[in-house]
Amino acid sequence: MEQQDIKAHSPEHRITTAELGPFCFARCSCGWRGPARRARSLARTEGRKHAMG
């Protein structure tokens, strides 16, 4: 499983993306996890939206 950090505007929200088979999802250090997506860009966008509030 590969991970990628996404810069967040809030220090309590550290967003990463992870891959599981053909799917990618964003997850946050606060416990939030986005839905599995086939498009990495969509998972990253959802992670950024979560981090911005």
Describe this structure in words.
- The longest helix has 13 residues, at 40-52.
- The protein has one helix spanning 40-52; strands at 3-6, 15-20, 23-28.
- The protein has 53 residues and is an alpha+beta fold.
- Helices cover 25% and strands 30% of the residues.
- Low-confidence parts: none
Treating each run of at least 4 consecutive H or I residues as one helix, how many helices? 1
Q: What fraction strand?
A: 25-35%
Adjacency order of strands in the biggest sheet: 1-2-3
| Distance from first to last alpha carbon | 27 Å
Report the count of strand segments.
Answer: 3
Which H/E pattern describes the elements?
EEEH
Helix content: 10-25%
Mean pLDDT: 86
Describe the structure concisely for a colleague:
This protein is an alpha+beta fold and 53 residues long.
